[in-house]
Amino acid sequence: MREVEPGLVGIGAEPQVAIGQRSLLVRTSEGNLLWDPSGFIDEEAVERVRELGGLRVVTASHPHFYGSMVEWSRAFGAEILLPEADAGWLMRPAERVRTWSGTAEVLPGVTLVQCGGHFPGSAVVHWADGAEGRGVLLTGDTIFVTPGEDRITFVWSAPNRLPLPERDVRGVVAAVEPYRFERIYGGWWTPVVRQDAERIVRASADRYIQHLRGEA
Q: In the UniProt record, does the keyword Zinc-finger occur (predicted)?
């Protein structure tokens, strides 16, 4: 567990569990949000999160990261938020589940944005106070940060290397267009788009579509 930037804490497991993604905990004055919950939870993790103020909300970018949601929720009495389009992927009953669609400001300055693409309900978090007030996106697999930290990409299936159709790429870009963001954190510790993220999303999407069309 380590601070990624002020107000944002990363939570992972060593050795890694499954595909090795790490969670992100967004801290606010009205409670904390856990994003893309780590697949491993133990008493030490619970205690350290409790020291940070516990959890008010547990949510994820897409169903591949739903596996430990119920355990994290029960440990803190936190509400699970699921996009209505993907709610059927939560495989076990949970006491506190609420669905949403479109957008939802779940804590002050912390907004869930449904983008679609990888899954119908694939989402990102816009954190307005991140990057010293310039805004941050937490994207999981909805928007992939690529090595080099100066571009992003989109996939329908990562293991099978299947691309996202142009229509869906445009949908993701349109969903985040209303928001200001300087930085993007994906589903792993690295890479990170540290600056100029809005321009990078637009430019990367244009380049991606050109390749889909065979125009590059």
A: no
Q: Which residues contact 32 (CB under 8 A, 6 or more apart)?
A: 25, 26, 49, 52, 53, 54, 55, 56, 57, 107
Q: Taking a C-beta distance cutoff of 8 angstroms, is the pair 27, 7 a contact?
A: yes
Say if pTM beats, i.e. exceeds, 0.90: yes
Side-chain-side CA neighbours of 109 within 13 Å: the count stands at 20
- Of 136, 204, 215, which is closest to residue 172 (Cα–Cα)? 204
Assigned CATH for 2-213: 3.60.15.10
Q: Where are the domains of the chain?
A: 2-213
CA angle 76, 183, 35 (to 5 degrees): 20
Contact criterion met (CB below 8 Å) for 125 and 111:
yes
pLDDT in tens, the chain (216 residues): 999 999 999 999 888 888 888 999 999 999 999 999 988 899 999 999 999 999 999 999 999 999 899 999 999 999 999 999 999 999 988 889 999 999 999 999 999 999 999 999 999 999 999 999 999 999 999 999 999 889 999 999 988 999 999 999 999 999 999 999 999 999 999 999 999 999 999 999 999 999 999 997
Cα–Cα dist 19/209, whole Å: 28
